[in-house]
């Protein structure tokens, strides 16, 4: 075994590799970019060296710099993780030339699998089923057009040296072919510097099932069963699981045997994944990934093995730890990827500082994460924050545990796909195990329908905010209470609550978690009882429910109820009344509070709607905006000032 390795990666996978190294007594050298100086992988590693600026091309992709660090620090081997340099044959060659070991297959194997045409040519004689098509050398338009007619329509044009989803085109008829070919060639030339194409019959709704294989340098090759990764969006995987649901055992056995033959056909070494498209009873080779994959933990959960340990042993020249007959699959595992992205805005990546991070601390849930509270999710890298991996004896229990793990998770700061993951996990398609690769792109609303806000979620949010307003101590003194106490009877407290651009006005009576909520003329009896760890029991009229409330601490919270997640925002009651007293340009405080920030300065021009100052009132932030274009004439407060309701804040001329 090695005594010291360098990890040419970042984030959760670097942390994951360090964990196994620590267990095996292998020292770790981390490399990092300037943006990652305080990253978790840097903190966990035995030593760490900065290799350049944030952009990957100036840090994690700098081959010479990484090799120099490896030599200086005395690494014997380099683990490339996934992404970055992990499937780069030139890097593999450079590592070898530097007298180091790359934890992965040979450069030659990477090169073959980097080309769809070369890979298919190798698979054919090995008896690995291929999608009917053409991957020949004659790339003239007439040859391709003739082959297209032979393959039939619809067909798929794929860049011969492409990977993932780039340079692909579906062609539905002969008359579309010439234009599609031209467009695909142009795209492929731009993306890969190679305009060669292959043709394949287009499968409309295939499942993506991949086999984990392992090979040592002594001629042994085994599989570690399969994973189903059919739930994808724009080629980004979302939930993966093992075993593949509803895969007949005959097909599973054939597919796994074909995967082993595929690895043998390219003299594979180390951990690899053979991807297949499964269409009814048929399965076809798609491509082989010559790296450890993001979703490897589901395989670890069903086999009880540590794949990084196997990688290290095989790279160090040891034989595979187990023979095929000694490798068993037990139960069911699922992995959900939590991304910093905003499903409400077309899944655009979201970046920023992680202000709160709650991930399940449950022996049934494995959390692989590269991010901690206070860390920044940078737009320079993959937006994955963490992976939740659960295991159970059956798929149904596994799915239930995943749902619970998702509901228990909470991230404030960047937007996340947690609500989308919960919707997918709860969907009929996922429950049946019938998700195909195109489902989420065809119709995201199929698994994530816009649901009306249930009264339970609204009542939970209202009751939570009401409860939080009530002081715990000194309750006996009416002057310290903000729950509407008055001599004689309590006045209603009102809340303006927003969810998905809809607003509700709730009038509330009561205190200490026991309320009457008046909403659009209906009165609801709500009782909220904290159970700890974000769990609450909520009774609405005669029904009670367990649910979770996660507070963002900025007048916003997430309610997880009935396997779904709602994000609710509380608005200041007088928010629309920002122009109180605006006729004479004197802006007054809409409620008592504290001045947090002053954006305006005396004498400067301002525009209508511009935020002039921010105050904190009733635990909320409130922006005071200019009611019209003008100039700030006089500022009457300063940051930190405590103001009464209707206090004069500033004057605009
Ligand atoms: C296909 C296909 C249907 N028919 N090939 C997309 C990524 C690339 N690696 C291969 N891909 C596909 N190839 C034929 N002949 C559908 C896809 C595909 C897909 C495959 C796996 C996982 C997700 C996918 C999402 C859309 C399309």
How would you describe this structure to a colleague?
The chain has 653 residues and is of the alpha+beta class. The chain has five domains: 4-103, Rossmann fold, CATH 3.40.50.20; 132-201, Dna Ligase, domain 1 (2-Layer Sandwich), CATH 3.30.1490; 207-447, ATP-grasp fold, B domain (D-amino Acid Aminotransferase, Chain A, domain 1, 2-Layer Sandwich); 455-571, Glycoprotein, Type 4 Pilin, CATH 3.30.700; 586-652, OB fold (Dihydrolipoamide Acetyltransferase, E2P). Helix content is 26%, strand content 34%. It has 17 helices and 39 strands. The strands form nine sheets. An eight-stranded antiparallel β-sheet has the order 14-13-10-11-12-15-22-20, with helices on both faces. It is elongated. The termini are far apart. Residues 576-582 have low confidence and may be disordered. The structure holds ligand MV4. Ligand MV4 binds next to β9 and β14. Residues 131, 156, 164-165, 200-203, 206, 208, 232, 235, 277, 286-287, 437-438 line the site of ligand MV4.
- Judged by helices, strands and strand pairing, the structural class is alpha+beta
| Heterogens | ligand MV4
Secondary structure: helix percent: 25-40%
Overall CATH architecture of the largest domain: 2-Layer Sandwich
What low-confidence regions span 5 or more consecutive residues with pLDDT below 50? 576-582
Distance between the termini: 76 Å
The percent range for strand residues is: 25-35%
Averaged pLDDT: 93
- CATH class membership of the largest domain: Alpha Beta
Q: If you consult CATH, what is the topology of the largest domain?
A: D-amino Acid Aminotransferase, Chain A, domain 1
Order of strands across the biggest sheet? 14-13-10-11-12-15-22-20
CATH superfamily of the largest domain: ATP-grasp fold, B domain
Total of domains: 5
Describe the biggest sheet? 8 strands, antiparallel
Count of DSSP strands: 39
Number of helices: 17
Shape: elongated
As a whole number of angstroms, the C-alpha radius of gyration is: 29 Å
